[in-house]
Design a protein that fits this description.
Chain A is globular. Chain A is built from seven helices and two strands. The first copy, chain A, has helices spanning 5-11, 16-37, 43-55, 61-68, 72-84, 106-127, 132-154; strands at 88-92, 100-104. In chain A, a hairpin with a 7-residue loop joins strand 1 (88-92) and strand 2. Chain A has a domain at 23-123 and 159-163: Winged helix-like DNA-binding domain superfamily/Winged helix DNA-binding domain (Arc Repressor Mutant, subunit A), CATH 1.10.10.10. The structure holds a DNA duplex (30 and 30 nucleotides).
DNA sequence: CCATCATAGTGAGTATGCTCAGCTTCCATG
DNA sequence: CATGGAAGCTGAGCATACTCACTATGATGG
């Protein structure tokens, strides 16, 4: 797991920057996940719980998927696990029998609150060393990368440029 | 898949920076993967092929895993798929019957060369808009995050600090 | 020589992500 | 009302990552 820096120098790609992005994200995620798992949460589960908690009203699967930013099928899997653990409930939509309405259970809301606290603590540990200006720098750089990828993948006709 | 920015503003965590890092990485990876898959490669496979190609000598599974930066079990899975596709070969170590020695086949070497070209092109598209100074900025910021995570996860006694 | 511990690799199982196919249901149009 | 296409969700299957447990082998000490 340590990924010896010397090894990376020997074997890294010519543009190690992207590799660094991948590796950093993977480790950060593992770090946060580790903290959250002690309380039955995880990054993916928390993202889903968060959207449900902040929406304030029951959501359809597809809306949940869109807000979280995952493919619908991925949301099905995550909701399956959350429902299995009693954190969310699927109820048939009263007027559209294709759809479900998803709500947090009480335990789901409790789990969400606890997970948010753990998440904040973990993120503070991971990025707390960065100053406000540095955070803005990082945010801007990530935005530039996203824009480049979106343009190049989604068609050069001017994709969504959120900044 | 679009993850509406307005939705993120409504539902994002209090520290959207880390979410941005996750989302950016996921999209960048999907972007590069898409390019590579047209030629039988992928990010994970290319990383493995790259190490084998640059090592210049047969590698044990555990060394390969360490150089690539994955858990040994993950390397087993990836090597399984590469071997299935005829890109690498497992040969029993002559003096340690527990171990395998992994080598690229000719097709593996060819696949690696092609994938590297696609990779370079994709990375140029994704990060080409960044100037040299910005790349250094990003690299430094990622390094700071990794250092914070490593210290906080690996024990505060001074983990490996690669910079 | 053999008991014991360590190492190498993988099987089993899980989590998170995806696509494609398929079913059910809705809706618009004739 | 019927019909065809669109929409909502999930089954099937894959890729990438992990941990834990296990087998087989190596190495070491009595």
């Amino acid at each position: 797991m340590a990924e010896d820096p010397a090894a990376r120098q020997r074997f890294g790609s010519s543009d190690a920057l992207v590799d660094e992005l991948f590796v950093t994200t993977q480790r950060l995620r593992a770090f946060v996940d580790g903290r959250l798992r002690e309380h039955g949460a995880s990054v993916a589960r928390l993202r889903t719980l968060r959207v449900l908690a902040l929406a304030g009203e029951p959501l359809r699967m597809r809306d949940l998927a869109e807000y979280v930013g995952n493919a619908p099928r991925t949301t099905t899997t995550i909701v399956d696990s959350l429902e299995r653990d009693g954190l969310v409930e699927r109820v048939r939509h009263p007027s559209d029998r294709r759809a479900f309405l998803l709500t947090l259970t009480e335990e789901g809301a409790r789990c969400h609150r606890e997970a948010e606290e753990l998440d904040r603590a973990a993120l503070a540990a991971a990025t707390g060393a960065l100053s406000g200006a540095e955070r803005e720098q990082l945010r801007a750089l990530l935005g530039r990368i996203r824009a480049a990828v979106d343009v190049d993948a989604g068609g050069a006709g001017g994709a969504d440029e959120d900044d």
